[in-house]
Automatic annotation (TrEMBL):
Residues 230-287 form the Protein translocase subunit SecDF P1 domain. Keywords: Cell membrane, Membrane, Protein transport, Translocation, Transmembrane, Transmembrane helix, Transport. Residues 438-600 form the Protein export membrane protein SecD/SecF C-terminal domain. HAMAP family: SecD_B. The keyword Membrane applies. This is Protein translocase subunit SecD. One of its GO terms (molecular function) is protein-transporting ATPase activity.
Length: 616
């Protein structure tokens, strides 16, 4: 029979509408302005007593607190007025030490029952809600020093393989200096090293009873190291931002040694700063034997027990750069650990080092580059001076039971949070050089709240006019089209919320265009039905023919638009991608509502009934 849907189609439509309504509901709950207080390392406990002190300080300053809550690694204080955020942050920042980060936040207020269903609102872009802006500076001197340290380790291994004796190595600026017992050893070493390391200029130095070889990086080599450092840092930061789940971020180079990072729609700016700015890396080293010369060893303390120390070899087996994947888990005693997979080269090096050292201890050395700021007086003015420093500590020291390969695990971590962040940093890649925060600020909506409100109002007025036109032009069928239009908007918002898409002003433009195209599909169908009625068809046949014959035109038009949207998404950046995402999703949802939902309503109203006249 014409114009009758089977039961499963009605059930499918109802399920889609119910899911769309459910997952679009979180967008009705506005976010609360808040202040986030957390540890820079994620392992410092902020207890109730400190929370009480923060609350009293804010209350004394006349700042109204909406609610407060403690989290796994910090405290979240919700405020009633967004204008109080900056003042509240400054008050709390004066009360804490350098190991605590105080950041602005917009905290979700979604009910718990919706959160239990993994329902969350759309995140808004910088132009609608604002976000966080970081200006980072890459330490180029450290990049050169790190490259020299790697080269020094490789040179020492080469000299040992050729049984050429050396005493120690020193690094100063761009120069690596090695001391030898006599000139014969030095000349043999120079001849050997020069073939394998062409990026140096070599100079013989005479010293009392011995001889020395100075190796200085060429200007071209230094430029290549610096370019690699900033490009690698760009890649790593983009990977870290993707791990954070931030949609439509901006990570780009600014000048010779700076990087701009803008994160729209982040929910925890403190965690974002901690992950983006972290310069953690790992080194795997063997523990030194008692008879190892002091020039080939270094002593380090343990991170969780500074009184305990161990002496390690200077030579590094592999670093975090060789990690291909990392994940957090728990060992048989319930303690946090990180499972690591190495790439092919790293696995080969690890296997070579461990198969000949079974029964010997191997350490995992955690390296983190930080910076501290102190105020000095220059020319009678207070000036903040940034002092970079590096922290090195042993995470674990375990005996090699058998030859290791590409997969193994790291234990000895302090907390699950530390394990999660370490695995994230290893997955996204280590930084080629340390980075420091030069500037950090919270950005408000670039167009101003008044302009945003006016834009939303114009969209509402436009939709109202479309609704009135459809009612006047198509009467009962206009009601069907308007219901489908509302359902289309609800489903589109739900899909974007489920995918975690970020809504920007260009994205709103894509939504408006989508709604217009959805109405356009209904117009094609309804006009086709009118033509069939004028041609003498019966009501039921005209309805059936109208939907069937307009189908190909609607599909063709939407597919071409979808192809354009996909091209925009693939080659565009930032706002262009935001427009393309909403347009692509909107095309798919409009096809569903225009073809299936309106057809279902028409079938329920007219299908299988003796209708002599249509109000269309």
């Amino acid at each position: 029979m014409l114009n009758r849907y089977p039961l499963w189609k009605y059930l499918l439509i109802l399920i889609v509408l119910a899911v769309g309504l459910l997952y679009s509901l979180p967008n009705l709950y506005p976010e609360d302005p808040a202040v986030q207080i957390s540890s820079t390392r994620g392992d410092v406990t902020l207890d109730e007593s400190r929370l009480k002190r923060f609350q009293n300080a804010l209350t004394d300053a006349g700042i109204e607190i909406k609610a407060s809550e403690t989290r796994e690694n910090g405290i979240l204080i919700r405020l009633t007025n967004a204008d109080d955020q900056i003042e509240a942050r400054d008050i709390i920042a004066d009360m804490v030490s350098e190991d605590v980060v105080v950041a602005l936040n917009l905290a979700e207020s979604t009910p718990a029952w919706l959160e239990s269903l993994a329902a969350s609102p759309m995140t808004l872009g910088l132009d609608l809600r604002g976000g966080v802006h970081f200006l980072l500076e890459v330490d180029m001197d450290a990049a050169v020093t790190q490259r020299l340290e790697v080269n020094a380790s490789a040179i020492r291994e080469t000299l040992r393989d050729e049984r050429i004796r050396y005493r120690n190595t020193d690094i100063d600026d761009r120069t690596l200096t090695m001391d030898f017992t006599n000139e014969e050893d030095r000349d043999a070493a120079r001849q050997l090293i020069a073939r394998q390391f062409p990026d140096f200029t070599y100079q013989n130095l005479d010293e009392g009873r011995g001889a020395a070889l100075a190796m200085t990086l060429t200007d071209q080599a230094v430029n290549e190291i610096e370019d690699y450092a900033i490009n690698q840092n760009l890649t790593t930061l983009r990977n870290r931002v993707n791990e954070l789940g931030v949609a439509e971020p901006l990570v780009q180079r600014q000048g010779p040694n700076r990087i701009v990072v803008e994160l729209p729609g982040v929910q925890d700016t403190a965690a974002a700063k901690r992950v983006v700015g972290a310069t953690a890396n790992l080194e795997f080293r063997l523990e030194a034997r008692p008879d190892t010369p002091d020039s080939e060893t270094e002593e380090f303390s343990f991170r969780n027990n500074e009184a305990r120390t161990a002496t390690l070899m200077r030579d590094v087996i592999v670093t975090g750069d060789s990690v291909s994947s990392a994940s957090r888990s728990f060992d048989e005693n319930g303690r946090p650990q990180v499972n690591i997979d190495l790439d092919g080269t790293g696995g080969t090096l690890m296997n070579r080092a461990t198969r000949t050292n079974i029964g010997r201890n191997m350490a995992v050395l955690f390296i983190e580059h930080n910076t501290r700021t102190r105020t000095v007086i220059e020319d009678g003015k207070e000036v903040e001076v940034r002092e970079p420093y590096t922290e090195r500590g042993i995470i674990s020291l375990a005996t090699i039971q058998s030859a290791l390969g590409n997969s193994f695990r790291i234990t000895g971590l302090d907390s699950p949070t530390e394990a999660a962040e370490l695995s994230l940093l290893l997955r996204s890649g280590s930084l080629a050089a340390p980075i420091y925060f030069v500037q950090e600020r919270t950005i408000g909506p670039s167009l101003g709240q008044d302009n945003i409100d006016r834009g939303i109002m114009s969209v509402q007025i436009g939709l109202l006019l479309v609704v009135l036109f459809m009612l006047v032009r198509y009467r009962v069928f206009g009601i069907f089209a308007n219901v489908a239009l509302a359902a289309n908007l609800v489903i589109l918002i739900a899909v974007m919320s489920m995918l975690g898409a970020t809504l920007t002003l260009p994205g709103i433009a894509g939504i408006v265009l989508t709604l217009g195209m959805a109405v356009d599909a209904n117009v094609l169908i309804f006009e086709r039905i009118r033509e069939e009625l004028r041609g003498g068809m019966s009501v039921q046949q005209a309805i059936h023919a109208g939907y069937e014959r307009a189908f190909s035109s609607i599909i063709d038009a939407n597919i071409t638009t979808l192809l354009v949207a996909l091209i925009l998404f693939s080659i565009g950046t930032g706002p262009v991608k935001g427009f393309a995402v909403t347009l692509s999703l909107g095309i798919l949802t409009s096809l569903f509502t225009a073809l299936m939902l309106t057809r279902a309503m028409v079938n329920l109203t007219y299908g299988g009934k003796p209708v002599k006249k249509l109000w269309i």
